[in-house]
Amino acid sequence: MTRRRSLTALARFRSSDFPQPPEHEGLRDAEVITFFTADGMVQLPGRTLKMPQRRLPPRAPLPTWQEQGLCVASTFVIAATNGFDPKRRINVLGFCRCTDMLSEVIEDTVLQRGGEIMLRECEPRSSLHETLKMTVAIPLLWGVPPEHETLSNAIVSGGGIVEKVWLQWHFS
């Protein structure tokens, strides 16, 4: 009585594991599949894919806090309503490095969501300190998912630091 045992293994290699010849620049194989059988080894090449070309040049990295030198913080207060009920609002208080950049990012986000900027004031408090006050109307502010999370993300991406968030409901 003889027993026959067979072993089958599958090995996958990415094309980045092996150097490419210069004539294949811009092209790469997706993967090479190798089968080890009792009769020998079988390799199946993957399909050739074109590598995507970068359209935009890479951006320079942002400077660190130490490289930027003097940092004078400005403050901001943003009030957001849903546009239909001005008595229900969410207020966001915080600090930012640049009120102009923060107001542009918030304006872009609100307009992308179909909202509107109701009020924008930039008051100089001293020669180095500014205060940004904005009132925005965002549709579905209290919807699911709530749009105030989008507003908070816009503040952070615009260089703002959220200090306090509070809801304000006026009942009359």
Topology of helices and strands:
Blueprint: E1 9-13, E2 27-29, E3 32-37, E4 40-45, E5 48-50, H1 65-68, E6 74-81, E7 88-96, H2 99-112, E8 116-124, E9 130-137, H3 148-157, E10 160-169
Parallel strand pairs: 6-9
Antiparallel strand pairs: 1-3, 2-5, 3-4, 6-7, 7-10, 8-9
CATH architecture verdict of the largest domain: 2-Layer Sandwich
Tell me the number of structural domains.
2
Query: Number of DSSP strands?
Result: 10
Largest beta-sheet characterization: 5 strands, mixed
Q: Count of DSSP helices? A: 3
The helix-and-strand class reads alpha+beta
Question: Which strand-content bin applies to the residues?
Answer: 35-45%
Strand order of the largest sheet: 8-9-6-7-10
Residue stretches low in confidence (pLDDT < 50, at least 5 long) are none
Shape: elongated
CA radius of gyration: 29 Å
What's the rounded overall pLDDT mean? Answer: 78
Order of helices and strands: EEEEEHEEHEEHE
According to CATH, what is the topology of the largest domain?
Alpha-Beta Plaits
Helical content class: 10-25%
Distance between the termini: 95 Å
The level-1 CATH class of the largest domain: Alpha Beta
Structure, explained:
The chain has 172 residues and is α+β, with helices and mostly antiparallel strands. It is 16% helix and 39% strand. The longest helix has 14 residues, at 99-112. It is elongated. The termini are far apart. The model has no long low-confidence stretch (mean pLDDT 78). Residues 59-171 form the DUF7811 domain. InterPro entries: DUF7811 (IPR056713). It comes from [Myrmecia] bisecta. Pfam families: DUF7811.
